[in-house]
Amino acid sequence: SSAAVGIAGLEDRHLHSGKVRDLYDAGDGLLLMVASDRISAFDYILPTLIPDKGAVLTQMSSWWFEQLADVVPNHVVASRVGDYPEMFAPYADQLRGRSVLCRRLDMVDVDFCLPVRQIADVLVQLVNGNATNVTESLNGGDNMEDQASAERPTNEPPGVQIPVACPECDGPIYQVTQGQLAKFQCFVGHQFSPDSFSEQHTEALERALWTAIRKLKERVILHKGLVERGKRNKGEDELKRRLEESISTAESDLKLLREILERI
C-alpha cells in the first residue's frame, strides 16, 4: 500500500523514508517523491493512517508550484504518472495523485547560525570584504555557544539594568547608550528603540489586562453558578454570603479594568 513505509516492488530504488514521504531513485538525476498517509507527532509516526492525506498534500503543493513557476524556479519535473519513467508504470495506481518526479538538489550545509541582531553587521562586513571570522559574536565567544533563549540567556548586555521586564520574554532589560542614541536590550537579545519599547510595553500591558478581565468574568460565572444551586449542604449560608461579595467585587473590578483599558 502507498500508506506503508515504501512501495513493495521498488525496494531496489528506495533511497529514504521520512515521517510522511518516501524517496526513490528515478535515474538521470531525478527522484520520485511519494507522500504516504502516515501522520507523525513529535517525530513519532502514529499507527493510524489518514486516508488520502498524502494525495491532498501532494496536490496542494503541486498547485502552488505551478502557480509560482514563473516567479521562482522549483524542483518539480512532472506530477502525472503518465510522464514518469517506464519503470514506475506497474505502480501507477499507488503513485497517482500522491507523487511528483523532481530534480535532485545539492545539499548546502549551513556554515553557522547568527542571532537576528547580528545579521546586519555581518552583511556589512561581507560586502566590505573584511569579514575575517563572522562566526565570532559581537561580545566575543562562539555563536553556537552564544545563541540565547529565554531559558538559556546569553551574556549580560552592556548597559544599566532598569526595573522593567522585557515585553517579549519578561526577562531583565538594560538601557544601552551609544553616543546620543539609546536602546533597550534584554539577555535574550530583544532590542527596542525608545518608541518601540513604549509601544511594546503598552501592548504587553493590554494583554495582561485582558487576561485579568477574562479571569474575573470566569470568577463571576463560577460564583453565580455556585450561589444559584438549588440544594445546599448544611452550614453553607456563610459560603453563599462570601460568594455574593466576591461577585460584587469582581464586577466592580471588571468595570475598573475596562476604564483603564480605555485610557492606555
Write structural notes for this entry.
The protein has helices spanning 53-67, 92-95, 116-128, 143-146, 194-227, 237-263, and strands spanning 14-17, 21-27, 30-35, 40-41, 44-45, 76-78, 99-103, 160-165, 172-178, 181-186, 191-192. It has 264 residues and is of the alpha+beta class. The strands form three sheets. It has a five-stranded antiparallel sheet. It has a four-stranded antiparallel sheet with strand order 8-9-10-11. A two-stranded antiparallel sheet has the order 4-5. Strand 10 and strand 11 form a beta hairpin. Helix 5 (194-227) runs antiparallel to helix 6 (237-263). The protein is flat, with a radius of gyration of 30 Å.
Q: State which percent range the strand residues make up.
A: 15-25%
Helicity level:
25-40%
Summed over residues and divided by their number, the pLDDT gives a mean of 82
Give start-end ranges of low-pLDDT stretches.
137-153
Give the C-alpha Rg: 30 Å
Biggest sheet overview: 5 strands, antiparallel
Could you give the order of strands across the largest sheet? 1-2-3-7-6
So how many helices? 6
Ends distance: 60 Å
- What structural class should be given to the helix and strand makeup? alpha+beta
Could you give the order of the helices and strands? EEEEEHEHEHHEEEEHH
Overall shape: it is: flat
Question: How many beta-strand runs?
Answer: 11
Indicate the topology.
Blueprint: E1 14-17, E2 21-27, E3 30-35, E4 40-41, E5 44-45, H1 53-67, E6 76-78, H2 92-95, E7 99-103, H3 116-128, H4 143-146, E8 160-165, E9 172-178, E10 181-186, E11 191-192, H5 194-227, H6 237-263
Helix pairs in contact: 5-6
